[in-house]
Amino acid sequence: MTDAFRNALRIGGLVAVVLAFVTVVEYVFAVNVDSDQVRFVGLALAAIAKSWLIVYFFMHVYRVWRAEAH
Amino acid sequence: MALAGTAAHAPEHVVHDKAKMKLVGLWLFFFSESVLFGLLLSARFYLERINREEVDQLLGLGITCVLLLSSVTAFTAETAIEHDRRKLAGWMLVVTILLGTGFACGVGFEWGTAHFSKEQAFGSIFFTMTGIHAAHVISGIGLLVLTWFQLARGRFSGKDHWPVSGTVMYWHFVDVVWVFFYPALYLVK
Amino acid sequence: MYALKSVAGALGAGLIGFYLGIGGLGAVRALAGYDAWDTEMSITFGYVFGVIGWVMGAGMWGAWGREWFGLRTYDRKAPGWQRYFVFNTDHKVIGIQYLVTFIVVFLLGGLMAMLMRAELTHSGHQLFSNAQYNSIMGLHGIMMIAVAVAALVGGIGNYAVPLLIGAEDMAFPRLNALTYWLIPPVALTLLCTPLLGGIETGWTAYPPLSVLTNNAQILFDVAIITFGLTSILGGLNFVVTIIFMRAPGMTWGKLPIFVWAMFATAWIALLYTQGFAVSLLMVLLDRVAGMSWFDAANGGDPLLDQHVFWFYSHPAVYVMVLPGFGIALEMISHFSRKPLFAYRYAVGALLGILGLSGVVWAHHMFTSGMPNYLHGPFLVATELISIPTGLIFLCALGTIWMGRLWLTTPMLFALAVIFNFACGGVTGIFLADVPTDIHLQDSYFVVAHFHYTIMGGEIFALFGAIYYYFPKMTGRQYNERLGKIHFWWMFIGFNVTFFIMHWPGIQGMNRRIADFMSDLNTANLIVSLAGFFLGASFLVFVFNMVWSWIFGPAAERNPWRARTLDWQTDSPPPLENFPVPPVVRGHPYDYGVPGSVHALFPGRGAEEPPRPPSTFPGAAPAPAGGGGGGGGGG
């Protein structure tokens, strides 16, 4: 097990924890907030944040701009 | 053309970055697909604003977590094959396939126990959106199975693993779609 | 016989897939306790599996599918004419496959138009019942839309773009072949619609009629969703090709204008085509699954369909005309022997149209009952599009200005594009303005307007492009005299037909209806006669093409003395396009600029220097062997 491999897995695990945390917070938030507008905006922000995390860390979108593809 | 054909200079071909082209092509495909999902999402708010019928919240949260977890295992599979750890990659693909199947079954269960009819607007929205998404999940499972099958037969290595990466990216994309569909269908009101 | 094997395999596998789909669905339904046969659901499933069987049987299994299972792939290497009937990944073959297929579809669609005009020679019913007329009109509409969307993009675009940018093929050759092989089942399915009662909704398939009408609608839905898929995949392929496959030195600022137009077009096809698919999918679900997307009684809304549909179908207009503009500007520059005027502005205009195309769709819906506050923004956005369109006109006129025009058939068609589209653009202003549109909506004024833009703009460009590339594609020269006869015949027939057609429209003659007020008899008779005249002109075209492909004199490598890369290789080009890959140095349109070179071929010398035209070169026999590189101009 090389260091690079361990680092990559660690980043993946960290992102996974953050995603799970945001998902649970999102759920609790949506169930307990009364204002429609606040709930909508909060959910939208959470969805955008989560999708960005997946797109960046899991799908490696930066590889599109990197000079040499993997 | 006889001139050039017989010329002493051997035809030297321009080398294109095929790996990059496949990567960008896949991203463009996601871009295009996201318009499809975006239109369905817009249609949902156009017809029903943020209103929704009663849905099984616990089941929704559960399948969301399962899909999220499957993204993590898929990520691990891709990282593993990038570092030439084929055995780990194979196992992670299997786990991803199982989690994905679990998600699809969860959606099926949700369909079977839904309190609303597809003949009402919210029902149309709910069944169409989850159905189109589930169709992508199932096709993703199919791709994962094909990839795993080839991996088990000894293909792919740290240098040559585009099918694994592409399939895993598709799987993540399906997850991203659910990240938007889940709050829009379960939580928004 | 590879061709026979391929086509028979495709048909056989397609039929097996079709029956497997129906049978599988029937088995599942029977197990679940329903009737095994449900007309629309069975047809949908049969179609899906049938299309998969068709493309796999056509050769995709061997060339691509086996790879998914870790098996060795193989190509069917078919010689001669047979290569047009197999799953061929060569972009030149695919371009010709597209062109020939869509010319056939165009002629069939034209035949439908002739039948419609025969019905409309006089008020009252002449030949057809209302349902038959609707069916003919719907088929004419969707077939011509398909031609307009795919003939220039798929045919000329596939053929010319890799040549123009100095590439050896498209970025994804197998994907390219797949996009073509999805077309024949679409065409066959559309032609089958009359068997189930015909399309009654026209090509727009508005609910609630499309939900309530006969079973033919389901064929229309699945066929057009497939067609949308080919459009998306084709667009994707073009974007990646143009970004990554350009020859060394072919910077964005040196890209031929047709390639820029294809780039903008490909983005539109990639991003918006989903709209048509989604609207048809919703119709399909309403019909097959009993959903309520468009059933107002259950919370649905028919207007939703119009929004989703026009979200694609207005940008689709630019999928049709942008490549038309591109190829027209290309030909105008080559045949005016002048640099393209304001190249950067033309590129900016193409990209500007790409940007604006997505925010104008509701101008098709001013009378639909959508909220009034939407009228103003969509009016303004629509009229904003005339700014980039006007820029393209200025570029064309500036290039023609003081040029030495070489009036070959392609050039005549390119000039006609500018003329016709100006007329279509001016009438468009009346339709973009809400007050006049409320009067003109759904009248023959609209019909005249969009035929001026789509047929006058794009189909003229398509025919110009076919004449322009005919020597390159076939290695033979077409008959210039017949070409010019075809042009004038078509141009006059077209303008008489559709210019007069504005008049009954202003008088309130409704489109899509087999009958009209008897005061408009004379006008309609003239339009019909002119329409038959227009229709007859294509016989000249077909004769010219077929005869010249077989018996025409051999074409030179560069009969037009053009500077772009496509004309610097053999006619027809070898499999790899450029035996010596080109290195681009200068701008493609620098006619008359001393010392400018567009491309170098290492080991072959510079491109043939363009010579001023003397007479039409097709008349003189080409030098044997196609002429040596660089030797011609010395």
Provide a quick synopsis of the model.
The complex is a heterotrimer of chains A (70), B (189) and C (634). Chain A is an all-alpha fold and 70 residues long. Helices cover 76% and strands 0% of the residues of chain A.
Polypeptide structure, described:
The complex is a heterotrimer of chains A (about 70), B (about 190) and C (about 625). In chain A, about 75% of the residues lie in helices and about 0% in strands. Chain A is built from two helices and no strands. The longest helix of chain A is centred in the N-terminal third of the chain and has 30 residues. The radius of gyration of chain A is 16 Å and the shape is elongated. The model of chain A has no long low-confidence stretch (mean pLDDT about 90). Chain B has a single domain, classed as Four Helix Bundle (Hemerythrin (Met), subunit A) (Up-down Bundle), CATH 1.20.120. Helices cover about 80% and strands about 0% of the residues of chain B. Chain C has about 625 residues and is an all-alpha fold. A three-stranded antiparallel β-sheet of chain C has the order 1-2-3, with no helix packed on it. The C terminus of chain C is likely disordered. Classes of the chains: A mainly alpha (about 70), B mainly alpha (about 190), C mainly alpha (about 625). The interface between B and C is large, with 45 and 61 residues.
Q: How would you sum up the major sheet of chain A?
A: none
**What is the straight-line distance between the termini of chain A?**
20 Å
What oligomeric state best describes the polypeptide chains here? Answer: heterotrimer
Based on CA inertia axes, which overall geometry of chain A fits?
Answer: elongated
Q: Describe the biggest sheet of chain C?
A: 3 strands, antiparallel
Work out the count of structural domains of chain C: 2
Q: How much helical structure, as a percent, in the residues of chain A?
A: over 70%
Structural class call of chain C reads mainly alpha
Q: Spatial order of the strands in the main sheet of chain C?
A: 1-2-3
Listing every helix as H and every strand as E from the N terminus to the C terminus, the arrangement of chain A reads HH
- Let me know the average pLDDT of chain C: 91
Question: How many independent structural domains of chain A?
Answer: 1
CATH architecture of the largest domain in chain C: Up-down Bundle
- What is the tally of beta strands of chain C? 3
